Amino acid sequence: MFIVLMAVLSANTILAQNTETENIQSKKIPFSIKAYPFRGMYLDKNTHYEKFGPIFPAGVHMGLEFPSLQQRPWQQYLGNPTVGLGLSWLDFGNPQDPGMAKLGMGVAVYPYILIDAIDTDYFQMRFKVAGGLAAVTEHWYTQEDTDPDHYYEPTVNTIFGCTLNVYLNAGINLNVPVTKYLAFGTEFGYFHMSNGRTCMPNIGMNSIYGSVGLTATINHKETRAPKTFPDLPYGWAINLTGAAGAQKSAIKDPNRFFISSIHAGAVYHVTNWYGIGAGLDLFYNGAIDKNTDRYLYRKDRDYTFTRYAPVWP
């Protein structure tokens, strides 16, 4: 983490020397490089985490950011947000007992957007929304013990069922400029990781975190004349989205079932940020059939795990 922060400072120093020559009419694009080491706390209070004792996630969030130059309608509609490409290194906090399962580490890559809430020369507060993919080093199938009967034992990792997972992140970013090239910041947020039952198990991970870091800005003097667009937003908007995939129902079951969803909606924009409308959502899950009784499992398949424990009279 220290090395990453020093790299940001070094880049800031070099670029500060090279950008003193003003060239407002050039086609250079302003951008920023940031590094925020973080430490978090798991929100999952269940057997799959408690069996390891106290563990805490940590790592560093890094990003390459591009401020709005007011050249697109969506930028002006959202109040000229900053967009970025993020890279996060994650340490899930391995238990100290060598006999317990390893939780390992992960790397996440994702686009994100920062929407301004407060923007002054001395302080900025922005809301962050991010979504992408994450790869983990340890999961159910990287361990020697994959017996479902040991599902709740501390010797097995039931958090993830495969290497690739979805990564979702939301938070509040606070930024204080130190110079025109460098800013000090903190971020408080939440991130989630899971595979959407593409493979089992799929306990997943939910964590809140706090971070402190630095942001170096390059070509900060570059500006563009805002483009003029028709009045936005338009009166009515039609939303049509669809998604499809496959999921497993249990560790023992080798089959995957088709799942899909379709959304259709119409929204009337009352103001720039608010609208009213109606929508219809349709869902399909191939793991549910007429033999199912309020569960995502088919009764004609054996998904049960057997556990043995001593019983005292």
Describe what is shown at a glance:
The protein is mainly beta.
Order of helices and strands: HEHEHEEEEEEEEE
Oligomer: single chain
What Rg is obtained from the alpha carbons, in whole angstroms?
A: 24 Å
Query: The biggest beta sheet, please?
Result: 8 strands, antiparallel, barrel
Please tell me the CATH architecture of the largest domain by its name. Beta Barrel
Query: Alpha-carbon distance between the termini?
Result: 56 Å
Question: Which overall shape is indicated by the principal axes computed on the Cα atoms?
Answer: flat
What would the CATH topology of the largest domain be? Answer: Porin
List unreliable stretches of 5+ residues.
Answer: 1-11, 13-25, 293-299, 302-313
For the biggest β-sheet, the strand order reads: 1-2-3-4-5-6-7-8
Percent range for β-strand residues: 35-45%
**Helix vs. strand class:** mainly beta
Estimate the helix proportion, in percent: under 10%
Total helical elements: 3
Provide the domain count: 2
CATH class of the largest domain equals: Mainly Beta
